[in-house]
Amino acid sequence: ANFHYRLLLIDDEPLNRELLASSLSAAGYEVEVAKDGFAALAQMHGALPDLIISDLKMPNMSGFEFLSIARRRFPQIPTIAVSGEFHAPIEPLGVIADAFLSKPFSLDELEAKIAELLRDSPPRPAVKRDRAPVWVPRNGEYYVITCTECLRSFSIPAEKSVRVLRELRTLACIFCDAQVQFIVEEQPEAAGLPITKANRTT
After folding, report:
1. Are 55 and 82 in contact (CB under 8 A)?
2. Which of 12, 49, 104, 138 has a CA 20 to 30 Å removed from the CA of 85?
3. How confident is the model at residue 116 (pLDDT cuts 50, 70, 90)?
4. 166 in helix, strand or coil?
5. Number of C-alpha atoms within 13 angstroms, CB side, residue 59?
6. CA 82 centroid distance within chain
């Protein structure tokens, strides 16, 4: 009766993250938080959660990338994707999760989905290899892409003219040669500013 499920909550907005974590803790869950996918993976080296809740649009490593990696490495852990950029019932292209909730959502709605997944989520074989595309901002002279296999980042020159935004593309990782799918997303507010910082892992 004293058992508490452990949840891992990933969101880059501090206020959203802390408010939701506080509400879920009050509901009887143990809640760990992370600000992006890299921080979440680092935390999972210490202890695995019973369920993951992840925002989709985050810097450094997006929820799309993190959920894809989590499904391949920890296929037994149920996942919920949340976002204010996309609206249910249409699930975003490429998201790999057991459920999707569009923001804003009620705590009751989230708790019901958590309980359902903890109760009914089927076991998955560890060899499952689902992959989600990397969402790459087009806001400068280069695209910085994080490989969903080896987690290392590399840059490629941005195309001078993009035929179709949000078109699924594929290229080989320069480090491990894995095929990485990516989607270019326009960011008009940052147009003309080159990307200079790449994601790094240890």
Report:
1. yes
2. 49
3. very high
4. coil
5. 8
6. 9
**Structural domain count, the chain:** 2
Q: Is residue 182 part of a domain?
A: yes
94 and 145 housed in the same domain: no
Whether 23 maps to a domain, the answer reads yes
pLDDT tens readout for residues 45-60 = 888 999 999 998 888 7
Q: How far apart are CA 1 and CA 141, in angstroms?
A: 56
User: CA 116 to CA 111: how far, in whole Å?
Assistant: 8
Domain span at residue 152 reads: 134-190
Burial class for 51, CB neighbours closer than 10 Å (0-12, 13-18, 19+): buried
**Is the residue at 68 inside a domain?**
yes
* Matching residue, tokens 């939701």: 20
**How confident is the model over 143-167, as a mean pLDDT?**
69
What percent of the chain stands above pLDDT 70? 71
Sequential DSSP letters for 64-112: HHHHHHHHHH-TTS-EEEEESSS-TTSPPTT---SEEEESS--HHHHHH
Same domain, 84 and 141: no
Question: The CATH number of the domain where 23 resides is what?
Answer: 3.40.50.2300
In a domain, 125, yes or no: no
Contact in structure between 132 and 148 (CB atoms under 8 Å): yes
